[in-house]
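2 proteins. here.
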Amino acid sequence: MKKRQPARTSEEFDRRFDAGEDVHDLVDISQATVIHYGKKMRITLDVAGSLVREIDEIRRQIGVDRGSLIKVWLHERVKQEKARPSKPALE
C-alpha cells in the first residue's frame, strides 16, 4: 500500500478533513500537547434568539456543541485582534 502524503499546511489538512478523508494516519499523536489556559471563568451573554438559531445551525453542520463553537470563535478573534498593529492614541 502506498503511503499517503502528509498535508503540507493546516489549510490543506482542514480541506482534506472537511472532504471526508480519513486523516488519522496524518497526525502524530505522540507529539500532541494539551494547553491549559488557566482558571476557567463563567460569563453570561444575552443575545438575540435569531443569532442563537444561526449559531445552532452552524454547529449542527460541523457537529460540535454551541459552547465549544463560541469558545473557538472567541479564541480566534482574540488572536486576530492581538496580531493587529496597535493604533496610535487619539489626541
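next one coming up
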Amino acid sequence: MREYRAKGPAARPPTHPGAILREDVLPALRLSVTGAAQKLGVSRQALHAILAETASVTPEMAARLGKLCGNGAGLWLRLQQARDLWRVEQEMAGELRKIPTLHA
C-alpha cells in the first residue's frame, strides 16, 4: 500500500477520538455511556471526559477501546497522536520556523 502525504498543514485539527466514539462507535454498538463504561471497566466520568473531548485517550484506554471495538489499541492511539501533534505544531509554529532543516 502506498502512503500519500498532505502538501501542507491541515487547517483544522484532526477529529478527537472521543467524537468518533460518541458519534459513530457507541451508537453502532447500541451502548450508552454507562453501559460502555461498565464493559470497559472504567468510571462513567472517565469515559465521559473522553466523549466530551476534555481528556485524551491514554494507552491504557486505547487498549480497552481496541478490545471492546475489536479494532486494536493502535487505531485509538494514532487518532489521539494525530490530534496532539497538530495542536503542538500550531502552538510552536513560530519557534519551529526558527529551527533550520538540515539534510545529510
